[in-house]
Amino acid sequence: MKIIVTGGAGFIGSNFIFYMLEKYPEYNIICIDKLTYAGNLSTLKSVINNPKFRFIKADICDRGTIDKVFEEVQPDIVVNFAAESHVDRSIEDPGIFLKTNIWGTSTLMDACLRFGIKRYHQVSTDEVYGDLPLDRPDLFFTEETPLHTSSPYSSSKAGADLLVLAYYRTYGLQVTISRCSNNYGPYHFPEKLIPLMIVNALNNKFLPVYGNGNNVRDWLYVEDHCKAIDIILHQGKIGEVYNIGGHNEMRNIDIVKLICKELGKTESLITYVTDRKGHDMRYAIDPKKIHNELGWLPETRFTEGIKKTIKWYLENREWWEDILSGEYQNYYKKMYKNK
Ligand code: NAD
Ligand code: DAU
Fold first, then answer.
1. Are 66 and 111 a contacting pair, CB within 8 Å?
2. What is the 85 CA–ligand 2 centroid distance (Å)?
3. Quick one: which ligand is closest to 190's CA?
4. pLDDT in tens, 248-279
5. Considering only CA atoms, which of 199, 191, 244 is closest in space to residue 220?
6. Which of 27, 146, 171, 176 is the most buried (most CB within 10 A)?
7. φ, ψ (nearest 5 deg) of residue 298
8. Spans of the chain below 50 pLDDT
9. Is the dihedral of CA 203, 209, 213, 218 positive or negative?
10. In 3-state terms, the chain is what percent helix, strand and coil (to 5)?
11. Domain interval for residue 139
């Protein structure tokens, strides 16, 4: 079995590669990644010399290169994690989101059709459903919930999902889509809530909470997401969408306070700052379909997962200090200076 994993130098893609190489030592995993600011080759250093792993630096929008790679590798499966993934960046500069997330997806699927690749999996997000009100805890996103996006990021992901379903219906490409809730765990880029709060707290820097901190996200440990994708690849029904989430809704402010407590830091570091534009209030996945049809259930409780995550950041300072020392400083100043 040969699997092309795009975006494998990023957060979830790298965790997926580690999981698959460990679980299926006979599989060949080929990672395609452009190494944008979010991709880090050092993340893959534990597998880079594994004979079953190969890294190819390439842009999923570059048709010529993607075609060459597909022709040479002839993968059985393509799993597309590659994306611009940060909502705040999409609000600043939507164009690259449209390019990578929509054009990149169609480029990959065109290559699948051209070279007769049997299976394409699109890693999507619960953000395509928009948000839910805080005062209706009975409401959840199901696979039937209409797409109703808020940010350029989520709109680009929804556009990609529609294209994937169109390639299934029009060209018969054998596709599946997964829509997962917020992930957390090792190798999470420190622009996202949990890793940003951990590294800022460790550096005794202010902890910027958007708005009143009451927004709710539905957190899933990254390995549980990887396990769900593995199950979809092996047992999922072609043409179907699967929601992935573990009923673990938490308010942002409670997460930040928990991180302070775990690290023994004062809550006085918490600073309420200007809200994100168009900020989604609540995400909450109904995972009944993947549970009932494919038997997937999350295995890591949040109390355990957040401890493991904090421990990872404490033990892997070099990984994130290296990121913080580069272009990240400009990003941080630009995004947080006037908040
Ligand atoms: P990430 O930003 O950490 O990683 C993205 C990776 O894609 C990076 O390695 C980057 O270099 C690569 N990439 C970007 N543009 C590329 C291009 N044009 N060609 C090749 N590679 C390119 O993202 P993540 O958090 O790991 O998310 C992975 C996928 O999962 C995304 O599609 C995202 O929409 C989806 N998702 C993320 C979450 C989450 O909580 N992080 C939840 C649900 C779904
Ligand atoms: O739901 C899945 C999505 O989760 C993925 O599709 C996205 O790729 C991923 O980035 C994530 O999107 P969010 O916008 O939910 O994640 P983020 O970590 O950026 O923010 C989580 C919440 O925390 C959100 O309500 C905004 C808030 N926040 C974020 C940052 C970076 C703050 O209050 N302060 C911050 O500094």
1. yes
2. 10
3. 2
4. 999 999 999 999 999 999 999 999 999 999 99
5. 244
6. 176
7. -65, 150
8. none
9. negative
10. 45, 15, 35
11. 2-188+219-248+284-306+329-336
Of the residues 33, 84, 126, 131, only one is catalytic, namely 126
Mutate to test the pocket of ligand 2, among 128, 193, 221, 277 (most ligand atoms within 8 A of CB): 193
Q: Is pTM beyond 0.85 here?
A: yes
Instruction: Quote the pLDDT of residue 339.
Output: 81
Number of structural domains, the chain?
1
209 C-beta closer than 6 A to ligand 2? yes
313 assigned to some structural domain: no
Angle between helices 252-263 and 193-202 (to 10 degrees): 30
User: Residue 300: what pLDDT?
Assistant: 98
Residue-level length of the chain: 339
> Is 201 among the domain residues?
no
111 in any annotated domain: yes
Of residues 12, 16, 17, 21, the one with CA closest to residue 83? 12
pLDDT at 56: 98
Residue 212 is assigned to a structural domain of this protein: no
